[in-house]
Predict the structure.
Amino acid sequence: MSALTSQQTRQLEKSLQAHRVVMQNAARDELSHAEEHSFTAIAGEVPDFGDQATAAAITDFDNEIARRNVRTIRDIEEALMRIKSHRFGTCIDCDEDIGYRRLMAFPTASRCMTCQSLHERTYAVGGAPTL
């Protein structure tokens, strides 16, 4: 069970809801920007290789921004669902409390510091290329 008080939980919930609105607006703005600046508009109708490379890089960058916004919104939604189900502030791996200071700094945190460190050490390394 979480050691958060109901006041702390409400404060974090309001913060998450406000951040969700900001991120939804950012995602909407990014989609509008992507529609206005398509690959063809950037590279031109008959692009050369330099134009194609520049347009591809800009498109990839814009796509990554959109993916980041979606991931953030998804994390916020998951945190809000944990609040509703009274699991917010409890580590998903060990069921220990996640500290209030950690949640203030990172309100979408789903793991305590110990489990998050272990998770990062275990999964942060990408696969080694093989032939």
Summary: The chain has a mean pLDDT of 85. Residues 6-88 form one domain. The longest helix spans residues 49-84.
